[in-house]
Amino acid sequence: DVVTIPVDDPVAFTFFTGYMSMFAASVFFFFERSRVPEKWKTSLLVSGLITGIAAVHYYYMRDYYASTGSNPTALRYIDWTLTVPLMCVEFYLLTKPAGATKGLMWRLIIAAVWMLVFGYIGEAFNPEGGSTSHSVTYGVLSTLGYVYILYLAWMGEVKQLAEKTNNPTIIRGIRTLSWFILVGWAIYPIGYMCMPGGWLNIAFGWQPSAVDLFYNIADAINKIGFGLVVYNIAIDDLSKAK
Amino acid sequence: DVVTIPVDDPVAFTFFTGYMSMFAASVFFFFERSRVPEKWKTSLLVSGLITGIAAVHYYYMRDYYASTGSNPTALRYIDWTLTVPLMCVEFYLLTKPAGATKGLMWRLIIAAVWMLVFGYIGEAFNPEGGSTSHSVTYGVLSTLGYVYILYLAWMGEVKQLAEKTNNPTIIRGIRTLSWFILVGWAIYPIGYMCMPGGWLNIAFGWQPSAVDLFYNIADAINKIGFGLVVYNIAIDDLSKAK
Ligand SMILES: CC1=C(/C=C/C(C)=C/C=C/C(C)=C/C=O)C(C)(C)CCC1
Ligand SMILES: CC1=C(/C=C/C(C)=C/C=C/C(C)=C/C=O)C(C)(C)CCC1
Questions:
Q1: DSSP string covering B11-72
Q2: In this structure, which topology does domain A10-241 adopt according to CATH?
Q3: ipTM, 2 decimals?
Q4: What are the extents of the domains in chain A?
Q5: What is the pLDDT of residue B242?
């Protein structure tokens, strides 16, 4: 039962770096939480939970991939089902001082769940050999949820509330998070299109194993990046308070 | 020994999300405990214990279900035997400032144990192939305990004491918890009726595996939800103290 990572398998490589970096990020956020001003402690805790939950899933996904060589689709979506809503909670916590309601949080969460449910149907129930119509149909449905989140972050309530805080650190922080959603999250649909029947699979022959390669890279960027943005907001506040 | 979750098995899916979310919730309650006012620290600790005990049971139930495909009835009731009484303790802690006695706590606990003992007999000793008379008899007996808890929460002592606190946060919190008992807890008997011989099994052909599906969903809602209600009461108090 020795962990073996073939030198020429970037997917296995990123499963392992994903696992370690998520774990380390959690330790970082949990420790630093004790230093930041009171009002940011919950946000840092949630950041640590996001990477911590991911670390556990990566531990299982890594082993699953290493022994079967196939995509751990169910584990992947179980991870997202928990971590994406927690990211919505982070948005809510950042905009709460400016008057964000629980309603906004729930709208973000429902859009995220919508996005994930259709993505899951698209991937998990893709017929043997792959079906382009299946993957496109559910991919488009899923994207509607994604676009709604983008709308809220870039033009809707989240944006308006950020401005109302009158706090340049928070405004900048929310802006950065919105960039993560626009650019970082866009890596996921690229991965999705590598599955059998997917556009990138058909057009360029990208292999199904690339699904996990993209997902692993995107997860590291988004989960740790999100947490670091929140962390920076908190640290900025700390140095101002001094 | 790789954890494998079939993509088309929602029961396995919810066992895994249940496990992870309970675990994360405990970490959350344990950390946040340090921030809340002194008088809420015990309540937050109990919230974290409830989800923590559940996380351990889910870890074992998940593996049991994954390798046998059958209902981990004994583990399930072992979990409840510990966590449901702890929920009764939460009610007691919330109403204590208004004069709740240990007697009230014990009445809640005895009703809960009554409910669980008959539920256990109903499920664990259901004859081969399922017996409707068996499941109905013990289901009804169990429900008597459930109804008594509902009575205490909605009309009896818990309700009266909540009003006596004159603290709108606590009144609202207890009201929310009572809704959890009325709606969230009602999901359990639905699961129970899916077992062989149960009404929903006979009437609609709902499968025995749905027992665990309902229990898993209900557990996530009730255990984490209960804890979050208590957490919100504590945080509300914190912001008022400032
Ligand atoms: C749009 C779209 C998708 C988007 C997935 C996203 C945006 C996932 C984000 C996950 C995150 C942020 C996890 C980190 O915790 C899917 C489901 C691949 C299906 C294809 C269409
Ligand atoms: C009424 C009734 C039942 C109720 C079970 C309940 C209400 C369980 C609650 C469990 C909780 C709240 C666990 C969380 O920690 C049974 C036993 C299924 C048997 C059928 C009748």
A1: HHHHHHHHHHHHHHHHHHHHHHTTTS-GGGHHHHHHHHHHHHHHHHHHHHHHHHHHHH-S--
A2: Rhopdopsin 7-helix transmembrane proteins (1.20.1070)
A3: 0.89
A4: 10-241
A5: 67
